[in-house]
Amino acid sequence: MNLQRPNANDATRTFNRSKHVVPGSGICSRCIDGCRGSCEIFKASFRGREVIYPGPYGEITAAADKNYPLDYSHLNIQGYAQGAKGLPEGVEASPDTARFPDVNTETQYGWKKKIKMRAPIFTGALGSTEIAAKNWEHCAVGAAISGITLVCGENVCGIDPGLRLDAEGKIKKSPEMDRRIETYKRFHEGYGEILVQMNVEDTRLGVAEYIRKQHKLDAIELKWGQGAKCIGGEIKVGSLRRALELQKRGYIVTPDPSLHANQEAFKDGAIKEFERHSRLGFVSEDAFLKEVKRLRDLGFKRISLKTGAYSMRELAMAVKYSSMAQLDLLTIDGAPGGTGMSPWRMMEEWGIPTFYLQALAYEFCQKLAKKGMHLPDIAIAGGFSTEDHIFKVIAMGAPYVKAVCMGRALVIPAFVGKNIGRWLKENKLPPTVSEFGKTVKEIFVCYEELRDKYGKDVDNIPLGALGIYSFVQKIRVGLQQLMAGSRNFKIETISREDLMALTEEAAKVSGIPYVMDAYRREAEAILDGR
Predict the structure, then answer these.
(1) Residues 6+ apart with CB under 8 A from 525
(2) Does 150 fall in a domain?
């Protein structure tokens, strides 16, 4: 089974000359002396470390294309011809009362105080990458008007050009963090919330203290990792001055900008960019519980944790420690994840894929629940984009999984809406858009709905936000249809019984009944007249 092809990929802007390629190495079966390129080996022979990352930085998001043995397409959703779960109390199921537009897609998470969302999705972390900064307004406003949670990722304060520190090296002022929080708050209507992530550098800089004091946020997210990589957050830096500044702030910067040889190489034009890296985190039960207590003492009422596609051991730690600390939300991000900047081969080859990781998470939750432990609400991340993904993830993880964290799928609508605005100004609408109209009112199906709600303020909503709102609307309606067909009229009634595994391997890993076994007992009872 050829799961992936190394040595060439559109993400790294490389390709093989030959149509015949050795599956294991990815090298052309006939490599010619004098080949003009450009496979990864060819490009790395003169650009070195640059070839590690997808590009161009700041203009793309990327996700690995390795074809895993199992994924969520190996599950199908059950449909039924009787019953209706989750109808309002006292309402009897009938063709007139069990209508799909009446399906409630709202979900909620939290240990004591529940946060409601209009759809069971929220954004992946939009942190210090250029792609996140450039599109923040579109994503933040889009999440707010859609009624979903927005995650502001790690290192935002640490790379802020306007950052001011006090005598103790703690944040005194961070204009970029201020912009991000205030943008979301401006349109926030009570559904969802903004979660600011915190890693090693953020903790040292005093991000928690700053957002609590300056913005009165009562929720924060600790970060152990993500599905895209097993190393700290990374960005590219295009100037020597900026690289030295970030190194002085305590970040790992490579190549070392303080070395004379690297400074000269940058002046020569050979080194075109530096990389800023976060440190690796180290987790222990005692330190984790102490940090949660410290954050609560600062005044945070809700604390969440984001963890990555680490080994089974770290997953067990995340589930158990989150329970012990009474965390409000645990987001588990499987491989390969999505990224604004992560090492490409790491994305392809590290970590537990999402399907397997969720199966393990369910198993661990069941074990702890049998011991009498209360589990935090869980969200699953790792390559989701459609309403059927959402249904399958919630069903497979029921009753613990409450939502799906979407990375690239919620950033793309921001790109699209933003670019439609630019194309309109330049009178360069592509046919894929102009076939629906040539004005904002004609193109965006949700425009009049939002104008009725916001009045003249609709013109202050960036078009990327309209893109996200339209996409969430599609997700909600599609999910309503799937839920109605499986006779679930609210998220809480979705269960593992609503899924079937299409292969015996998928059944073995997930614990979901094989298609030839699911509901067999009930079917046999009907056939036998029982």
Answers:
(1) none
(2) no
**Alpha carbons 505 and 514: distance in angstroms, whole number:** 9
103-147 per-position pLDDT tens digit: 999 999 999 999 999 999 999 989 888 888 999 999 999 999 999
Is the omega angle on the peptide bond into residue 255 within 30 degrees of 0, that is, cis? yes
Written in H, E and C, the secondary structure of 106-170 is CEEECCCCCEEECCCEEECCECCCHHHHHCHHHHHHHHHHHCCCEEECCCCCCCCCCCEECCCCC
Average pLDDT over residues 253-260: 96
Rounded CA-CA distance 49/30 in Å is 25
Residue type, 234: E
Beta-carbon contacts of 286 under 8 Å, excluding residues fewer than 6 positions away, are none
* Residue 377 covered by a domain: no
Phi first, then psi, for residue 263 (nearest 5°) are: -65, -40
Q: Are strands 115-117 and 121-123 parallel, antiparallel or unpaired?
A: unpaired
Q: Are 322 and 377 in contact (CB under 8 A)?
A: no
Q: Which residue, of 485, 503, 520, is where some domain finishes?
A: 485
Give the amino acid at 303: I
Residue 462 maps to a domain? yes
Q: Which domain holds residue 266?
A: 234-277
Burial zone of 66 (CB within 10 Å; 0-12 exposed, 13-18 middle, 19+ buried): middle
Q: What's the domain count of the chain?
A: 3
Q: Rounded distance, CA 480 to CA 495, Å?
A: 15
Which residues have a Cβ under 8 Å from the Cβ of 426 and sit 6 or more positions away? none
User: How many CB atoms lie under 10 A from the CB of residue 290?
Assistant: 12
Cβ neighbours, 10 Å, residue 402: 24
DSSP assigned state of 51: G
- Contact yes or no for 120/147 (Cβ under 8 A): no
Residue whose entry in the numeric block shows the structure tokens 């950033």: 411
Q: Is residue 330 part of a domain?
A: no
Closest CA to 142 of 470, 504, 514, 497: 470
CA angle 355, 221, 60 (to 5 degrees): 60
- Give the span between the Cα atoms of 341 and 229, in whole angstroms: 9
Q: First and final CA of the chain: distance in angstroms?
A: 46
DSSP labels, 396-428: HTTTTEEEEEESHHHHHHHHHHHHHHHHHHHT-
pLDDT value at residue 3: 59
Residue with tokens 């940058």: 266
Residue 474 CB contacts under 8 Å (≥ 6 apart), including other chains: 387
> What is the reported pTM?
0.94
Helix (H, G, I), strand (E, B) or coil at 230: coil
